[in-house]
Write a structure and sequence with these properties.
The complex is a heterodimer. Chain A is mainly alpha-helical. Chain A has 13 helices and no strands. Helix content of chain B is 31%, strand content 19%. In chain B, the strands form four sheets. In chain B, strands 1-14-13-17-15-16 form a six-stranded mixed sheet. In chain B, strands 2-8-7-4 form a four-stranded antiparallel sheet, with no helix packed on it. In chain B, strands 11-10-9-12 form a four-stranded parallel sheet, sandwiched between helices. In chain B, helix 11 packs across helix 14. The longest helix of chain B is centred in the last third of the chain and has 37 residues. Classes of the chains: A mainly alpha, B alpha/beta. The interface between A and B is large, with 37 and 66 residues.
Chain lengths: 328, 465
């Protein structure tokens, strides 16, 4: 043999998947929801998305290059996904510098200090979002819709359905009254006005998630556990007292339920490896989110629920393993 | 019966069976063959010939070197030139018998006609002796001596003979071709093994991507009319041809860790082994030849072949006969792309279990740079043994042998599904193979220590008397 041939152990072929291809699939899956939100909120939404993605990518590039002195991981597109998810959790009217602060917390606090991709304990986008929520409560709850490219039906100005409901309940009205005045119906499956990009259309998010399932990027168990738990809890409570507790449809279609269950809770790094662990993790998220919605002072609890359950992942990974062949 | 498959893990690589339409051709003989003494699992065989001896085709040239070992026969007629070490595929020096080819004279006891012999001898011991004397070993990859596998230990009963026609490795087509071209011989071989095992049912497992093989084997089963033999169609999924996976797919039973298939009543034999059993028992033909595939990605069909070869032929000669190494080839592999071995030495010779020479292009085979684990769990989803490769790799890096044993590193079958499916291109199997070796060492040392302690206690007890 004159020519040198490669000699290495098996396997000699590869499935042709990479971190980059997986992240690209997630970006594609987010596109329907992004398109809906840009149509609804116009240039301001585009600005928030652009600032968030650019900040995340540039921060990751700069920190890996100059502080960590290791090969840049920007090419794997995970910073783009973090940027998109962060932007989809913010009101379109928010000012760009606050978006940058959120991106900074996501990349430079939640992700890179732990060792970068694959090592972070908490979901970076949610950490950034929660930081902004407690630091800039006024700006983060200004849900006045910015002018979009197409007219929105029945916009509730200044509040998400969840926060409007919380206010209404505080002022003594009941849920049937709230529903009557605000006209919340099935159409909100497609349009959920007065919300962030990631919360506006449950239908668009589901469409993207189906793409991820078909591409075998994620498995459905965690979202089923999260949404199933939320549905069961709201069915029980609204069955007991429909005047005070909202029903199944309202809870699944409003706020961050869909975005959280489909795209945040399924984050590889911060969710358990085993199926059983994932189901327990999902149930935990559903219970905490519903408790905050019903009994907490915040109108929405998905972000806190996911962050809290992120803490349990190392334990769940230690306790629950996949079933092994030939071992009872 | 619907299509079945095994219950956990597995991957779906493109099957790339480009050579499945190439009929089996007889490979011409070279001037010299080098017959390895280590063509089977277990102890190497002991040469019985000396330089200068004349040998006939099919004459015994080496005897078993232990209980798990096998006879080796001369694949050619001619003169023994030397008995000397020579590098095998992996570059290890092994004893080889060098024979200069002179004509093609066969041992007269061998029936070389193509007539099908369907009458099966009655004496089980005689059948087993014939299989042993013919040097038959498992041709599915492990080359375990067949007569040992067909003699279950006392107290163990075979409940099902599974004939492995899955050929789940991409590219390989040799089993496919023999099932299409020699189905009746394979079925008679199965009936012989069935008889030796006491008449248990026999299931011939074939993956759905070989419809012509399924048709020809089903027709042969129906025509020959042996009782209790049937063809089972399996879904296409790698590594279905793994013994443990095939038992799971066909019998829905799982072999315990460290156990043998016979513990759950299963005996698995490859279809090529069945053909060898037929030839040994019905034709007195020792195992001196087999079928191998020459194929690869981006190779023109006219350069792809299924060759009927004699053992001991240097790979370089086969490659030359097939038109030389294609320019696109970056890696040469003996076996399939998932579990085959990279060829570092084309002077290595064919052995009983050779199944292919596979050319892979740089694009198909070059490993990508390793990046950070993103904990996607794809390796655990792909593992057909239900292991967690990401965890085993971490434990190995940390040197935690106890953790590795608890997490069953020793159960790894080295199928390559974990590395195949890892998006971060982490060389999981490379690490786990090392870990497995170390854990097996610990387990063996512990077993040896326990045995020694038991013997010491026994000796002490006897001394007291």
């Amino acid at each position: 043999m004159d020519k040198k041939y490669i000699v290495s152990p098996n396997p000699h072929i590869h499935a042709n998947v990479s971190t980059t291809s997986i992240m690209r699939d997630v970006i594609i899956a987010l596109c329907p929801a992004i398109v809906v939100s840009v149509l609804a909120y116009g240039w301001s939404e585009l600005l928030v998305l652009a600032v968030s993605v650019l900040s995340c990518v540039l921060l990751e590039w700069a920190v890996t290059k100059w502080m960590m002195k290791r090969p840049s991981t920007v090419g794997d597109l995970s910073a783009v996904v973090t940027g998109l998810l962060l932007a989809m959790n913010l009101p379109s009217a928010i000012s760009p510098w606050i978006v940058f602060v959120g991106a900074f917390v996501a990349i430079c606090v939640a992700k890179l200090p732990f060792g970068g991709i694959g090592q972070n304990v908490f979901n970076p986008a949610i950490t950034g979002r929660v930081f902004l929520l407690v630091s800039f409560p006024a700006q983060m709850t200004n849900w006045n819709p910015t002018p979009g490219f197409i007219p929105l039906p029945d916009a509730i100005s200044g509040a998400t359905p969840l926060s409007a409901l919380k206010e209404a309940l505080k002022s003594g009205s009941t849920i049937p009254q709230f529903m009557e005045t605000n006209g919340y119906d099935l159409a909100s499956f497609l349009w959920d006005a007065g919300a962030s990009a990631g919360e506006i259309s449950a239908g668009a998010l589901l469409l993207g998630f189906v793409y991820l399932l078909i591409r075998r990027v994620v498995k459905p168990w965690i979202p089923i556990a999260v949404l199933g738990t939320m549905a069961i809890i709201s069915a029980i409570f609204s069955g007991i007292n429909p005047e005070v507790y909202t029903g199944v449809q309202f809870n699944l279609l409003t706020g961050g339920a869909m975005l959280g269950a489909l795209f945040m809770a399924t984050d590889y790094v911060t969710s358990p490896m085993s199926t059983l662990g994932g189901v327990i993790y999902g149930i935990g998220i559903g219970v905490i989110a519903m408790m905050i919605r019903y009994f907490g002072s915040y109108p929405e609890g998905m972000s806190f629920a996911i962050l809290l359950m992120n803490c349990t992942v190392p334990l769940l990974n230690m306790w629950f393993h996949q079933k092994k062949y030939g071992r009872a | 019966m619907g299509k079945v498959t095994f219950s956990m893990g597995g991957v779906h690589p493109h099957d790339s069976k480009f050579a499945h339409g190439c009929a089996i051709e007889e490979l011409p003989l070279p001037q010299t063959v080098y017959v390895s003494m280590a063509q089977h699992l277990g102890a190497p065989a002991k040469p019985l010939v000396a330089p200068g001896d004349k040998v006939l085709v099919g004459q015994v040239i080496a005897e078993p070197g232990g209980f798990i070992s096998a006879f080796v026969h001369s694949p050619v007629s001619g003169t023994v030139k030397a008995i000397a070490p020579r590098q095998d595929l992996a570059g290890n020096f092994m004893m080889h018998v060098e024979i200069a080819v002179e004509g093609d004279e066969w041992d007269p006891a061998i029936d070389r006609s193509q007539d099908l012999v369907t009458a099966i001898p009655d004496d089980k011991a005689a059948i087993l002796d014939k299989i042993k004397a013919a040097g038959v070993v498992g041709l599915g990859g492990a080359t375990f001596p067949t007569h040992v596998k067909l003699s279950p230990p006392p107290g163990k009963v075979a409940e099902c003979l599974i004939l492995n026609g899955t050929e789940c490795e991409p590219f390989l087509t040799s089993d496919h071709r023999i099932m299409v071209e020699r189905p009746k011989e394979i079925v008679v071989g199965a009936a012989i093994m069935q008889k030796v095992l006491g008449g248990c049912p026999c299931v011939i497992g074939i993956e759905e991507n070989k419809p012509d093989a399924i048709a020809s084997m089903s027709a042969a089963v129906a025509e020959l009319g042996y009782p209790n033999i049937r063809v089972q169609v399996l879904k296409k999924r790698y590594p279905q041809g793994g013994e443990k996976q095939l038992i799971d797919a066909v019998m829905h039973r799982q072999v315990k860790s460290g156990g043998l298939p016979i513990d759950v009543g299963a005996v698995v034999q490859n279809v090529a082994t069945s053909l060898a059993v037929y030839e040994a028992v019905q034709k007195n033909m020792p195992l001196i030849s087999n079928v191998l595939t020459i194929t690869g990605d981006n190779i023109p069909v006219e350069r792809q072949h299924n060759y009927h070869y004699r053992i001991g032929i240097p790979l370089s000669y086969i490659v030359e006969q097939a038109g030389g190494i294609p320019d696109t080839a970056a890696k040469l592999i003996s076996g399939g792309p998932m579990m085959g071995k990279a060829i570092s030495n084309l002077d290595a010779t064919t052995v009983k279990g050779s199944s292919s020479v596979l050319y892979l292009s740089e694009a198909a085979t070059r490993r990508q740079l390793e990046t950070a684990c993103i904990r996607c769990g794809k390796c655990a989803d792909a593992c057909p043994m239900g292991l967690e490769p990401f965890l085993l790799k971490r434990l190995y890096k940390a040197g935690d042998l106890d953790g590795l044993e608890q997490n069953a590193a020793q159960d790894c079958i080295e199928c390559g599904c974990c590395l195949y499916s890892c998006p971060a291109h982490i060389p999981l199997l490379d690490h786990i193979r090392q870990a497995k070796g170390q854990v097996m060492g610990v387990i063996r040392a512990r077993a040896a220590a326990a045995k020694a302690a038991a013997e010491a206690a026994k000796a002490a007890a006897e001394a007291k008397k």
